[in-house]
Amino acid sequence: MSWNQKQKAQSLLADEEGTIRKDWGGKVTVALVYPNTYAVGMSNLGFQTIYWHLNQRPDVVCERVFLADYAEQAERARTNAVPLSLESGRPLTDFHIVGFSVTYEGDYINVVRLLNEAGIPARANDRGAHHPIVLMGGVCAFSNPEPVAPFMDLIAVGEGEELVHELIDSYRGAADRDGFLARAAKIEGVYAPALYDVQHAEDGAIGGVTPAPGLPPIVVKRRLRNVNAFETVSLVKTPHAEYGHMALVEVGKGCGRGCRFCLEGQVYRPVRHRSVDALRETITKLSKESSRVGLVGACVSDYPWIGDLMDVVEEAGMELSISSLRADSLSDKLVASLARGGHRTLTVAPEAGTERLRNVIRKAISDEQILGACDMLRRHGIPNMKCYFMIGQPTETMEDVEAIPALAARMLERLRALDAKGHPFGRLTLSISAFVPKPWTPFQWEPFDGADSLQKKLEVIKRGARPLGTVRVLHENPREAALQALLARGDRRVADFIELAAGFGGDWRRARREWDGDPDFYTTRVRPVDERLPWDHFDVGVKRPGLLRERERAHAAELAPAS
Questions:
Q1: Alpha carbons 349 and 39: distance in angstroms, whole number
Q2: How do beta strands 154-156 and 133-137 pair?
Q3: Which residues contact 110 (CB under 8 A, 6 or more apart)?
Q4: What contacts 155, CB < 8 A, 6 or more positions away?
């Protein structure tokens, strides 16, 4: 539906005075907003799961809203259109609750843009009794939500399958907006930013956070204790989504590897695997409507019963796809199953070019295991390979950077062998991202490398890969990584920057020039280990002593037992 069509749908809902009707049959109405495009949002299992759970309640109507794509944005700007829900074409102002599901820090700017376009005051303290409740969930809500805290009435800290029902029950039992906010703030895992006063020290760091009377000083993350009680699957299939051609199934939450750079491996602890029996039931149901299943998780090849699960997929007559693989947990059976499922590319993530740096980040994969993965790929006829690497990691030297194309050259020696059917190898892709120190990781005190330094390292990699022919180098813009570092590590003062960028139509470069804050304060400085961090009034299950211990081991290039 174009934005002009959506505007027409909106006008049909208006009465003679031009106001929008709110006749929902006494139900609580929720606009579930993914602040990115439809294709991205409908591939997010968490978003789909919450949408499904809310609509299972007879007393709730939940509809979806997405950011327009570029063409629609231009049309919307020209016609002064507003964001409308996908199901009934209603504006955000017509809902009782507007809930944002935020997975990427870069989408913070889109959150504020959508509020502005909808006519809802961006700042929570500017909203009145007639405005919707604005809340946020998703992984960004329990890593560091402080940069967007001034825009949120409530933040759901943790896994939401149970939490959303408690919020709805609380809403139905409240007399008015203020009454609901007061009740909701007392639910475990719910954070009401306006009720927490943040003070700053003379050096600009956080000096303290004081909650309103009766509220806990530390907001504790909610986590599911029994993952088998909740299916996390792609419930709405569409060919327009990024993975719309397959049914997606989450095999568990968390990862036991403990890579020192990885936010997901920390905040989803403890590791909780779904049982084979629970997944068999899910896959059997999905096989009736899809021929292909994608297994999703932090590291699916580490699933303890992966062989049994592959048998379940095969018995169901489905083709297999997997979201994440480790070179040291690959098997011939797994690669063969992927090949039968039509996989054209095998993806692994060495993350660093040298074994020394892999030990620093606790990604203990040897060069030989990577080369062994190349052999398996060729043995089973998969024609392409993709490898993820990061640059700008703690203790990194230029030798570590130069080792990335050197390792690619060694891999090509194995990959150029003809496969079992005599077919040649296709292409090796090196996907290069920039390391961003994330909250709740042993590297949360480390500095971001800086865009100029990262650009020089990218040139080294591209220059080294150029003679290799069938090697392609993909990379993000280092300045985009600098934006992510600011948003991931900022405090509430960064909200001013976000608001500027939203007001400039998403032009964050212009906002950075006009913002009176100091980005380097949040990004490129080393933070003292005794500094209070913006996210220290949350408890996501990760303890500071453990993080410090792992940081010390990292700088000594030591490994530690997997947890």
A1: 25
A2: parallel
A3: 35, 36, 67, 502, 506
A4: 135, 136, 137, 141, 145, 149, 190, 191, 192, 193
DSSP states of 83-147: -B-TTT--BGGGSSEEEEE--SGGGHHHHHHHHHHHT--SSGGG--TTSPEEEEESGGGGT--GG
| CA angle 105–83–42, rounded 5-degree value | 55
pTM of the model as a whole: 0.88
Question: How far, in Å, CA of 311 to CA of 316, rounded?
Answer: 9
Model pLDDT, residue 19: 32
270 prior amide bond cis, ω within 30: yes
Determine the Cα–Cα distance for residues 167 and 141; give it in Å rounded to an integer: 16
Q: What is the mean pLDDT of the chain?
A: 88
- Tokens for 124, please give them: 């929570």
CB neighbourhood size of 563 (10 A): 11
The CA–CA distances, whole Å, from 58 to 27, 236, 379 equal: 8, 19, 53
Neighbour tally for 422: CB within 10 Å: 7
Taking the C-alpha atoms of residue 472 and residue 429, their distance in angstroms, rounded to an integer, is: 5
Stated length of the chain: 563
Give first-to-last CA distance, the chain, whole Å. 48
* CA distance to 21, 297, 362, 391, per residue, from 358 (Å): 58, 21, 6, 12
Per-residue confidence band for 10, with pLDDT thresholds at 50, 70 and 90: very low
Enter the tokens of residue 507: 């032009």
Average pLDDT (338-358) is 92
Contact 210, 223 (CB under 8 A): no
Strands 319-322 and 292-296: parallel
Q: Read out DSSP for 402-414?
A: HHHHHHHHHHHHH
CB-count exposure of residue 130 (10 Å: 0-12, 13-18, 19+): exposed
CA dist., res. 496 & res. 420, Å (int): 59
In this structure, how many other beta carbons lie within 10 angstroms of the beta carbon of residue 525? 12
Query: CB burial class (10 A; 0-12, 13-18, 19+) of residue 255?
Result: buried
Tell the residue number behind the tokens 């016609």, with chain if given.
Answer: 79
The amino acid occupying position 23 is D
Q: At what angle do helices 451-465 and 398-415 cross, to 10 degrees?
A: 30
What residues form DSSP beta bridges with 431?
Answer: 388, 474
Cα angle 210, 485, 463 (rounded to 5 degrees) comes to 170
CA angle 88, 100, 121 (to 5 degrees): 85
Q: How confident is the model at residue 316 (pLDDT cuts 50, 70, 90)?
A: very high
Strand partners, 122: none
More confident residue, 283 or 44: 283
- Structural domains of the chain sorted by starting position, each given as residue range(s) with its CATH number in brackets: 3-13+24-203 (3.40.50.720), 246-490+534-555 (3.80.30.20)
Main-chain phi, psi angles of 373, to 5 degrees: -65, -35
> Closest Cα partner for 165 from 45, 12, 322, 59?
59
Going along 343-479, which residue ranges are E strands?
345-351, 384-391, 428-434, 471-475
Taking the alpha carbons of 311, 313, 315, 318 in that order, is the dihedral positive or negative? negative
